[in-house]
Protein backbone atom coordinates (compact mmCIF):
# COMPACT_ATOMS: atom_id res chain seq x y z
CA UNK A 1 0.00 0.00 0.00
CA UNK A 2 1.13 3.52 -0.67
CA UNK A 3 -0.07 6.90 0.43
CA UNK A 4 -0.02 10.45 -0.82
CA UNK A 5 0.15 13.04 1.89
CA UNK A 6 -0.11 16.79 1.43
CA UNK A 7 1.06 18.89 4.34
CA UNK A 8 -0.52 22.30 3.86
CA UNK A 9 0.64 25.00 6.26
CA UNK A 10 0.38 28.76 6.75
CA UNK A 11 2.28 30.96 9.19
CA UNK A 12 4.31 34.05 9.94
CA UNK A 13 7.94 34.81 9.19
CA UNK A 14 10.39 33.99 11.97
CA UNK A 15 13.99 35.14 11.71
CA UNK A 16 16.69 32.65 12.71
CA UNK A 17 20.17 33.39 13.95
CA UNK A 18 22.73 31.29 15.78
CA UNK A 19 25.17 34.03 16.58
CA UNK A 20 24.42 36.55 19.25
CA UNK A 21 25.64 38.23 22.40
CA UNK A 22 24.73 37.10 25.90
CA UNK A 23 22.64 34.20 27.09
CA UNK A 24 20.01 32.40 25.07
CA UNK A 25 16.84 30.94 26.50
CA UNK A 26 16.35 27.34 25.30
CA UNK A 27 13.07 25.65 26.13
CA UNK A 28 10.59 23.46 24.27
CA UNK A 29 6.94 22.68 23.77
CA UNK A 30 5.04 20.01 21.86
CA UNK A 31 6.10 21.48 18.52
CA UNK A 32 9.86 22.03 18.79
CA UNK A 33 12.80 23.41 20.68
CA UNK A 34 12.34 27.12 21.34
CA UNK A 35 15.39 29.39 21.25
CA UNK A 36 14.89 32.95 22.47
CA UNK A 37 11.16 32.60 21.93
CA UNK A 38 11.41 31.23 18.38
CA UNK A 39 10.38 27.71 17.45
CA UNK A 40 13.07 25.84 15.49
CA UNK A 41 13.30 22.99 13.01
CA UNK A 42 16.92 21.91 13.19
CA UNK A 43 19.16 19.67 11.10
CA UNK A 44 22.07 18.19 12.99
CA UNK A 45 25.03 15.98 12.16
CA UNK A 46 27.21 13.72 14.29
CA UNK A 47 30.93 14.44 14.15
CA UNK A 48 33.17 12.71 16.70
CA UNK A 49 36.16 14.81 17.69
CA UNK A 50 38.50 11.85 18.49
CA UNK A 51 37.66 10.04 15.25
CA UNK A 52 38.29 12.80 12.71
CA UNK A 53 39.78 16.14 11.83
CA UNK A 54 36.36 17.74 11.89
CA UNK A 55 35.21 19.43 8.70
CA UNK A 56 32.63 21.62 10.40
CA UNK A 57 32.58 24.23 7.63
CA UNK A 58 31.57 21.54 5.13
CA UNK A 59 28.79 20.42 7.46
CA UNK A 60 27.52 23.99 7.69
CA UNK A 61 27.66 24.32 3.91
CA UNK A 62 25.51 21.18 3.73
CA UNK A 63 22.71 22.99 5.53
CA UNK A 64 23.25 21.80 9.09
CA UNK A 65 22.30 23.91 12.09
CA UNK A 66 23.73 21.71 14.85
CA UNK A 67 26.79 19.50 15.38
CA UNK A 68 26.25 16.58 17.71
CA UNK A 69 28.95 14.52 19.44
CA UNK A 70 29.30 11.74 21.95
CA UNK A 71 31.58 12.24 24.96
CA UNK A 72 34.09 9.42 25.49
CA UNK A 73 34.59 8.70 29.19
CA UNK A 74 37.37 6.11 28.89
CA UNK A 75 39.28 8.40 26.53
CA UNK A 76 39.17 11.27 29.02
CA UNK A 77 39.66 9.33 32.25
CA UNK A 78 41.81 6.28 31.40
CA UNK A 79 42.78 5.97 35.08
CA UNK A 80 40.81 7.16 38.11
CA UNK A 81 41.12 10.93 38.52
CA UNK A 82 43.69 11.12 35.69
CA UNK A 83 42.01 13.25 33.03
CA UNK A 84 43.19 13.89 29.50
CA UNK A 85 41.66 16.57 27.28
CA UNK A 86 44.69 17.12 25.05
CA UNK A 87 45.02 16.85 21.26
CA UNK A 88 42.09 15.04 19.66
CA UNK A 89 40.58 14.65 23.13
CA UNK A 90 40.09 18.42 23.38
CA UNK A 91 36.31 18.61 23.48
CA UNK A 92 36.35 22.26 24.57
CA UNK A 93 38.30 23.25 21.45
CA UNK A 94 35.85 21.22 19.36
CA UNK A 95 32.79 22.95 20.84
CA UNK A 96 34.44 26.34 20.37
CA UNK A 97 35.08 25.55 16.71
CA UNK A 98 31.39 24.73 16.32
CA UNK A 99 30.61 28.09 17.88
CA UNK A 100 33.09 29.85 15.60
CA UNK A 101 31.25 28.40 12.60
CA UNK A 102 27.97 29.86 13.88
CA UNK A 103 26.35 26.51 14.62
CA UNK A 104 24.64 25.03 17.66
CA UNK A 105 25.97 21.99 19.52
CA UNK A 106 24.51 18.94 21.22
CA UNK A 107 26.67 16.89 23.60
CA UNK A 108 25.66 13.31 24.34
CA UNK A 109 27.44 12.67 27.63
CA UNK A 110 26.04 9.22 28.29
CA UNK A 111 28.36 8.27 29.90
CA UNK A 112 27.59 4.85 28.43
CA UNK A 113 27.59 5.84 24.77
CA UNK A 114 27.76 2.57 22.77
CA UNK A 115 28.95 4.31 19.57
CA UNK A 116 30.87 1.17 18.53
CA UNK A 117 33.52 2.40 20.96
CA UNK A 118 35.56 0.13 23.20
CA UNK A 119 33.55 -0.88 26.28
CA UNK A 120 30.79 1.49 25.23
CA UNK A 121 32.90 4.37 26.51
CA UNK A 122 33.09 3.11 30.09
CA UNK A 123 36.57 3.08 31.67
CA UNK A 124 38.00 -0.38 32.25
CA UNK A 125 39.01 0.51 35.81
CA UNK A 126 35.35 0.60 36.83
CA UNK A 127 35.61 -3.18 36.79
CA UNK A 128 37.81 -3.10 39.88
CA UNK A 129 35.36 -1.22 42.09
CA UNK A 130 33.85 -3.61 44.67
CA UNK A 131 30.14 -4.28 44.25
CA UNK A 132 29.73 -2.22 41.10
CA UNK A 133 26.94 -3.03 38.62
CA UNK A 134 26.96 -0.88 35.49
CA UNK A 135 23.90 1.10 34.41
CA UNK A 136 21.81 0.04 37.36
CA UNK A 137 20.39 1.44 40.58
CA UNK A 138 23.76 0.73 42.11
CA UNK A 139 25.47 3.23 44.40
CA UNK A 140 29.10 2.61 43.30
CA UNK A 141 28.18 3.06 39.63
CA UNK A 142 25.95 6.06 40.22
CA UNK A 143 28.71 7.75 42.22
CA UNK A 144 31.23 7.36 39.39
CA UNK A 145 28.72 8.29 36.70
CA UNK A 146 27.63 11.46 38.47
CA UNK A 147 31.24 12.46 39.06
CA UNK A 148 32.14 12.21 35.37
CA UNK A 149 28.95 13.82 34.05
CA UNK A 150 29.45 16.67 36.52
CA UNK A 151 33.06 17.01 35.36
CA UNK A 152 31.99 17.50 31.74
CA UNK A 153 29.12 19.83 32.59
CA UNK A 154 31.35 21.96 34.81
CA UNK A 155 34.00 22.14 32.06
CA UNK A 156 31.38 23.44 29.63
CA UNK A 157 30.12 25.93 32.20
CA UNK A 158 33.63 27.16 32.98
CA UNK A 159 34.12 27.96 29.28
CA UNK A 160 30.60 29.46 29.01
CA UNK A 161 29.62 26.99 26.31
CA UNK A 162 25.98 26.40 27.24
CA UNK A 163 23.44 28.51 25.38
CA UNK A 164 22.23 29.82 28.74
CA UNK A 165 25.70 31.41 29.01
CA UNK A 166 25.87 32.62 25.42
CA UNK A 167 27.50 29.43 24.10
CA UNK A 168 26.43 27.01 21.34
CA UNK A 169 25.22 24.00 23.39
CA UNK A 170 21.43 23.83 23.16
CA UNK A 171 20.87 20.18 24.07
CA UNK A 172 22.48 17.41 26.13
CA UNK A 173 21.88 13.67 26.40
CA UNK A 174 22.03 11.45 29.47
CA UNK A 175 22.31 7.64 29.13
CA UNK A 176 21.95 5.97 25.72
CA UNK A 177 19.36 3.52 24.35
CA UNK A 178 18.72 2.16 27.84
CA UNK A 179 15.15 1.25 26.95
CA UNK A 180 16.53 -1.66 24.92
CA UNK A 181 18.06 -3.30 28.02
CA UNK A 182 16.07 -1.86 30.92
CA UNK A 183 14.00 -5.02 31.44
CA UNK A 184 17.18 -7.04 32.01
CA UNK A 185 17.86 -4.98 35.14
CA UNK A 186 14.41 -5.83 36.51
CA UNK A 187 13.53 -3.68 39.51
CA UNK A 188 16.87 -1.84 39.32
CA UNK A 189 16.21 -0.35 35.87
CA UNK A 190 13.34 2.12 36.41
CA UNK A 191 14.81 3.75 39.53
CA UNK A 192 18.16 4.12 37.75
CA UNK A 193 16.53 5.98 34.87
CA UNK A 194 14.63 8.23 37.27
CA UNK A 195 17.85 8.93 39.15
CA UNK A 196 19.81 9.64 35.93
CA UNK A 197 17.18 12.14 34.78
CA UNK A 198 17.05 13.89 38.16
CA UNK A 199 20.83 13.99 38.40
CA UNK A 200 21.22 15.50 34.92
CA UNK A 201 18.50 18.12 35.36
CA UNK A 202 19.93 18.98 38.77
CA UNK A 203 23.20 20.06 37.16
CA UNK A 204 21.34 23.16 35.92
CA UNK A 205 22.81 23.55 32.46
CA UNK A 206 19.98 25.83 31.38
CA UNK A 207 19.26 23.66 28.30
CA UNK A 208 17.02 20.60 27.82
CA UNK A 209 18.15 16.99 28.25
CA UNK A 210 17.17 14.04 26.08
CA UNK A 211 17.20 10.25 26.42
CA UNK A 212 17.18 8.24 23.19
CA UNK A 213 15.21 5.00 22.82
CA UNK A 214 13.72 5.65 26.25
CA UNK A 215 9.96 5.91 25.89
CA UNK A 216 9.54 6.35 29.65
CA UNK A 217 12.02 9.24 29.92
CA UNK A 218 10.99 11.11 33.08
CA UNK A 219 9.84 14.71 32.76
CA UNK A 220 11.31 17.12 31.81
CA UNK A 221 13.74 14.91 29.84
CA UNK A 222 12.68 14.44 26.20
CA UNK A 223 12.44 10.91 24.80
CA UNK A 224 14.01 10.69 21.33
CA UNK A 225 14.13 8.23 18.44
CA UNK A 226 17.10 6.37 16.93
CA UNK A 227 16.93 4.40 13.67
CA UNK A 228 16.46 4.72 9.93
CA UNK A 229 12.72 5.32 9.72
CA UNK A 230 11.61 7.35 12.71
CA UNK A 231 8.82 8.95 10.69
CA UNK A 232 7.27 5.48 10.55
CA UNK A 233 8.45 3.80 13.76
CA UNK A 234 8.63 6.47 16.46
CA UNK A 235 5.61 6.24 18.80
CA UNK A 236 6.13 9.92 19.54
CA UNK A 237 6.95 12.00 22.60
CA UNK A 238 5.68 10.59 25.90
CA UNK A 239 4.09 13.93 26.71
CA UNK A 240 2.13 16.38 24.53
CA UNK A 241 4.46 19.06 25.84
CA UNK A 242 7.62 17.48 24.34
CA UNK A 243 8.83 17.79 20.73
CA UNK A 244 9.61 14.95 18.32
CA UNK A 245 13.40 14.55 18.17
CA UNK A 246 15.45 12.09 16.09
CA UNK A 247 18.90 11.73 17.65
CA UNK A 248 20.30 9.09 15.28
CA UNK A 249 19.30 8.86 11.62
CA UNK A 250 21.77 6.25 10.43
CA UNK A 251 23.30 7.39 7.14
CA UNK A 252 24.83 3.94 6.63
CA UNK A 253 25.99 1.57 9.37
CA UNK A 254 29.20 0.56 11.04
CA UNK A 255 31.01 -2.52 9.72
CA UNK A 256 32.42 -5.54 11.49
CA UNK A 257 35.11 -7.73 9.96
CA UNK A 258 33.71 -9.98 7.24
CA UNK A 259 30.62 -7.87 6.49
CA UNK A 260 29.89 -6.13 3.22
CA UNK A 261 29.63 -2.32 3.40
CA UNK A 262 26.19 -1.06 4.38
CA UNK A 263 25.08 1.32 1.63
CA UNK A 264 22.08 3.52 2.33
CA UNK A 265 20.98 5.64 -0.59
CA UNK A 266 20.66 9.40 -0.54
CA UNK A 267 17.08 8.97 -1.75
CA UNK A 268 16.10 6.76 1.18
CA UNK A 269 17.65 9.08 3.76
CA UNK A 270 15.95 12.12 2.23
CA UNK A 271 12.56 10.37 2.10
CA UNK A 272 12.57 9.52 5.78
CA UNK A 273 13.81 12.94 6.87
CA UNK A 274 11.07 14.63 4.87
CA UNK A 275 8.47 12.22 6.25
CA UNK A 276 9.57 12.88 9.84
CA UNK A 277 9.33 16.63 9.27
CA UNK A 278 5.94 16.23 7.58
CA UNK A 279 4.73 14.44 10.70
CA UNK A 280 5.79 17.36 12.90
CA UNK A 281 9.29 16.19 13.69
CA UNK A 282 11.47 19.16 14.55
CA UNK A 283 15.05 17.91 15.07
CA UNK A 284 16.89 15.41 12.88
CA UNK A 285 20.46 14.30 13.53
CA UNK A 286 22.45 12.33 10.95
CA UNK A 287 24.52 9.58 12.54
CA UNK A 288 27.09 9.90 11.19
CA UNK A 289 27.31 13.05 9.09
CA UNK A 290 31.12 12.86 9.07
CA UNK A 291 32.82 9.45 9.15
CA UNK A 292 36.04 8.81 11.00
CA UNK A 293 38.76 6.43 12.10
CA UNK A 294 38.87 4.15 15.14
CA UNK A 295 42.48 4.76 16.12
CA UNK A 296 44.45 2.35 18.28
CA UNK A 297 42.24 0.08 20.35
CA UNK A 298 39.24 2.40 20.50
CA UNK A 299 36.89 0.30 18.34
CA UNK A 300 34.35 -2.06 19.90
CA UNK A 301 34.78 -5.80 19.32
CA UNK A 302 35.15 -6.72 15.62
CA UNK A 303 34.35 -3.16 14.44
CA UNK A 304 36.49 -1.96 11.53
CA UNK A 305 39.05 0.80 11.84
CA UNK A 306 37.14 2.79 9.20
CA UNK A 307 33.96 4.21 10.74
CA UNK A 308 30.91 5.31 8.71
CA UNK A 309 32.90 5.95 5.57
CA UNK A 310 29.58 6.14 3.66
CA UNK A 311 28.45 9.24 5.57
CA UNK A 312 27.82 12.51 3.66
CA UNK A 313 31.39 13.44 4.61
CA UNK A 314 33.50 10.29 4.49
CA UNK A 315 36.19 8.99 6.84
CA UNK A 316 38.56 11.74 5.67
CA UNK A 317 36.03 14.56 5.50
CA UNK A 318 35.67 14.35 1.71
CA UNK A 319 32.28 14.85 0.07
CA UNK A 320 30.36 11.60 -0.41
CA UNK A 321 28.19 12.35 -3.40
CA UNK A 322 25.34 12.32 -4.19
CA UNK A 323 24.52 12.00 -0.48
CA UNK A 324 25.99 15.31 0.68
CA UNK A 325 24.54 17.36 -2.17
CA UNK A 326 21.09 15.72 -2.13
CA UNK A 327 20.66 16.31 1.59
CA UNK A 328 21.85 19.90 1.20
CA UNK A 329 19.06 20.47 -1.32
CA UNK A 330 16.56 18.77 0.99
CA UNK A 331 17.48 21.07 3.87
CA UNK A 332 17.15 24.14 1.65
CA UNK A 333 13.70 23.07 0.43
CA UNK A 334 12.41 22.36 3.94
CA UNK A 335 13.74 25.68 5.19
CA UNK A 336 11.56 27.42 2.62
CA UNK A 337 8.65 26.04 4.64
CA UNK A 338 9.91 26.77 8.15
CA UNK A 339 7.66 29.67 9.01
CA UNK A 340 4.33 28.15 7.98
CA UNK A 341 5.30 24.74 9.41
CA UNK A 342 6.10 26.17 12.82
CA UNK A 343 3.12 28.48 13.16
CA UNK A 344 0.40 26.95 11.01
CA UNK A 345 -2.15 24.15 11.23
CA UNK A 346 -1.86 20.77 9.54
CA UNK A 347 -4.55 19.00 7.51
CA UNK A 348 -4.54 15.57 5.86
CA UNK A 349 -6.36 14.99 2.56
CA UNK A 350 -6.93 11.67 0.80
CA UNK A 351 -6.29 11.94 -2.94
CA UNK A 352 -6.86 8.39 -4.12
CA UNK A 353 -6.81 4.71 -3.24
CA UNK A 354 -3.26 4.84 -1.94
CA UNK A 355 -2.52 8.54 -1.88
CA UNK A 356 -3.04 11.33 0.60
CA UNK A 357 -1.70 14.79 1.25
CA UNK A 358 -0.96 16.60 4.48
CA UNK A 359 -1.31 20.30 3.95
CA UNK A 360 -1.57 23.81 5.22
CA UNK A 361 -2.09 26.90 3.11
CA UNK A 362 1.45 27.82 2.17
CA UNK A 363 3.43 24.58 2.24
CA UNK A 364 2.75 21.04 1.05
CA UNK A 365 4.58 17.74 1.51
CA UNK A 366 3.32 15.22 -1.04
CA UNK A 367 4.09 11.64 -0.02
CA UNK A 368 3.97 8.50 -2.13
CA UNK A 369 4.60 5.46 0.07
CA UNK A 370 4.15 2.97 -2.77
CA UNK A 371 7.53 1.33 -3.36
CA UNK A 372 6.79 0.30 -6.98
CA UNK A 373 4.42 2.71 -8.67
CA UNK A 374 4.78 6.26 -9.93
CA UNK A 375 1.54 8.09 -9.21
CA UNK A 376 -0.06 11.14 -10.79
CA UNK A 377 -2.64 13.00 -8.75
CA UNK A 378 -4.65 16.17 -9.12
CA UNK A 379 -4.60 18.88 -6.49
CA UNK A 380 -6.09 22.35 -6.93
CA UNK A 381 -6.51 21.73 -10.68
CA UNK A 382 -2.84 20.83 -11.16
CA UNK A 383 -1.25 17.46 -11.93
CA UNK A 384 1.64 16.16 -9.85
CA UNK A 385 3.81 13.13 -10.57
CA UNK A 386 5.48 11.30 -7.72
CA UNK A 387 8.08 8.57 -8.28
CA UNK A 388 7.84 5.44 -6.12
CA UNK A 389 8.62 5.93 -2.42
CA UNK A 390 9.20 9.65 -2.65
CA UNK A 391 8.14 12.98 -1.23
CA UNK A 392 7.77 16.26 -3.09
CA UNK A 393 8.09 19.53 -1.20
CA UNK A 394 6.01 22.45 -2.50
CA UNK A 395 6.77 25.62 -0.50
CA UNK A 396 3.79 27.43 -2.05
CA UNK A 397 1.63 24.31 -2.52
CA UNK A 398 1.99 24.85 -6.27
CA UNK A 399 5.60 24.47 -7.39
CA UNK A 400 7.74 21.43 -6.59
CA UNK A 401 11.03 22.61 -5.08
CA UNK A 402 12.43 19.16 -4.29
CA UNK A 403 11.65 15.49 -4.67
CA UNK A 404 13.45 12.97 -2.51
CA UNK A 405 13.85 10.41 -5.33
CA UNK A 406 15.30 12.81 -7.90
CA UNK A 407 19.05 13.08 -7.43
From TrEMBL:
Reaction(s) this enzyme catalyzes, per UniProt: Hydrolysis of terminal non-reducing beta-D-galactose residues in beta-D-galactosides
Keyword entries, A-Z: Apoplast, Glycoprotein, Glycosidase, Hydrolase, Secreted, Signal
SUPFAM superfamilies recorded: (Trans)glycosidases (SSF51445)
Protein name: beta-galactosidase
UniProt main location, coarse: secreted
Domain Beta-galactosidase beta-sandwich: 362-407
Annotated ranges, domain Glycoside hydrolase 35 catalytic: 32-333
Gene3D superfamilies, per database record: Glycosidases
Family membership: Belongs to the glycosyl hydrolase 35 family.
GO terms of molecular function: beta-galactosidase activity
This protein's record includes keyword Ligase: no
Superkingdom: Eukaryota
